[in-house]
Each structure stands twice: as C-alpha cells, then as structure tokens.
C-alpha cells in the first residue's frame, strides 16, 4: 500500500494491521496527520490501483522553496542518511537583548533515516560569564513540536519546523551567529556537515545592539 499527496509526493507506505471481530476480518491502514502533513487530497493505492481517498485540512500547505524568506542549502549527515536545511525565517528580523525569537526552519529529507533526531538552535557570541560558554539563547527539541519525527519524514517533503528562545537580556553589543543542527538524543552525537569539520550550520550572522 502507498499513500500519495495530490502533488504526486509519496507520503507513506504503511503496513496493514489485521483485526478479527465476529468472524469478520478487518484491516486498518494507519496514517498519522500532523501540522506538517500538507493540506490537500490523498490517494491510497494497492498494486497500482486506487482503493481509497481522503482529504487533509487545517494543517500546513505544501511548502515550496519560493515560500522561504531566507534560502539556505546545507546538508547534515552522511551519504546514506542526509537531511537538508533548505532555509529559515527569523522573527523579529533585528532582535535585541531580552527579545523572544521565533525561528522557522525548513528541512527536507534526502536519504532515509532510522533515527529520531533532536534539533538545536543556538545564538552564540562572545563568552557568557554566567554560563562559561558562548551561548546567549538556545532551544533544543524534536522537530515540529514533537509531532513529526525525522524517521517518519517522507523523502522530498519540505517541512517547516518552528523553534523559539529568549535572548539573554545581558547579552552585550557584539556580533553573533545563529547555529542550527541535529543530534541523536540517545548519545548526544551531532550530525556532521559533510565536507567540513563542523557539526552545525551557521544560518545567520547578526549584530545585537
């Protein structure tokens, strides 16, 4: 069985679960709908024939690269397991110390992964005397608020993933960088940026007043 979005994007190929009640065999096809499941019509096919259809409403649209405010093409992972950061949006655009910042990341899975990775977003700058690190704001969490894990992502779907954090109000006037990456929550191992020694993508350089 396969479930395909009206755009032609293969969203899932779930297995059937069987139940028997009163001598009648019933099979259930499970498909989880999250905020990142694109609105539109879906077709369920078996052996090349359509067997059912349904419509998803109230979730995100099918995002396209032209919808993204800041395009950014960076990869995380190895050849057999690649996740692409396609772009981002940040609000406010010119944050200042003490502000609450919302960052929308746009991901796309290029090769399948069996791991449910955690996303991190960090604002780094001069050394923070309060923590002994260059961190002045951060957020770690599973993508899409924990409703759509990386090992469930269909290949090719552009996924919007929102994160928010507060900038330390004592952050000094200086240059800062917004770092984005993923790690395995089981051991904390970060996905590498292929071809570099980095384990995070520098999405943005900004200056705090």
**Percent in helix:** under 10%
Arrangement of strands in the largest sheet: 2-1-5-6
Shape: elongated
How many strands appear in the DSSP assignment?
A: 14
Percent of sequence in beta strands: over 45%
- Secondary structural class: mainly beta
Provide mean pLDDT, rounded. Answer: 92
The end-to-end distance, rounded to whole angstroms, is 55 Å
* Elements, N to C (H/E): EEEEEEEEEEEEEE
Note the total helix count. Answer: 0
For the largest beta-sheet, the strand count, sense and barrel status come to: 4 strands, antiparallel
Radius of gyration: 20 Å
Short overview:
0% of the residues lie in helices and 53% in strands. It is mostly beta strands and 209 residues long.
Task: Write the topology of this structure.
Layout: E1 2-5, E2 10-12, E3 16-21, E4 24-29, E5 40-46, E6 49-56, E7 70-78, E8 81-91, E9 100-109, E10 118-128, E11 133-141, E12 158-166, E13 174-183, E14 201-208
Antiparallel strand pairs: 1-2, 1-5, 3-4, 5-6, 7-8, 8-9, 9-12, 10-11, 10-13, 13-14
Looking at this protein, list some descriptive labels:
about 210 residues; four-stranded antiparallel beta sheet
Task: Note down, in words, how this protein is organized.
It is a single chain. With 209 residues, the protein is mainly beta. It contains no helices and 14 strands. The chain has strands at 2-5, 10-12, 16-21, 24-29, 40-46, 49-56, 70-78, 81-91, 100-109, 118-128, 133-141, 158-166, 174-183, 201-208. The strands form four sheets. The protein has a four-stranded antiparallel β-sheet, with no helix packed on it. The model has no long low-confidence stretch (mean pLDDT 92).
């Amino acid at each position: 069985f396969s479930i395909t979005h009206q755009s032609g994007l293969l969203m899932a190929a779930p297995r059937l679960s069987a139940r028997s009640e009163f001598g009648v065999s019933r099979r259930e096809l499970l498909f989880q709908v999250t905020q990142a499941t694109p609105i539109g019509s879906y077709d369920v096919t078996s052996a090349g024939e359509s067997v059912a259809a349904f419509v998803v409403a109230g979730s995100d649209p099918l995002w396209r690269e032209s919808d993204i405010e800041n395009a950014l093409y960076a990869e995380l992972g190895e050849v057999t397991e690649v996740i692409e950061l396609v772009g981002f949006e940040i609000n406010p655009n010119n944050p200042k110390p003490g502000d609450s910042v919302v960052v929308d990341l746009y991901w796309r899975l290029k090769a399948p992964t069996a791991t449910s990775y955690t996303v991190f977003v960090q604002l780094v700058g001069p050394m923070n005397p309060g923590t002994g690190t260059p961190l002045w704001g951060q957020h770690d969490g599973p993508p899409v608020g924990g409703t759509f894990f990386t090992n469930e992502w269909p290949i090719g779907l552009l996924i919007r993933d929102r994160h928010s954090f507060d900038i330390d109000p004592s952050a000094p006037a200086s240059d800062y960088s917004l770092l984005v990456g993923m790690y395995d929550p089981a051991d904390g191992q970060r996905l590498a940026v292929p071809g570099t020694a980095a384990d995070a993508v520098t999405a943005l350089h900004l200056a705090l007043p």
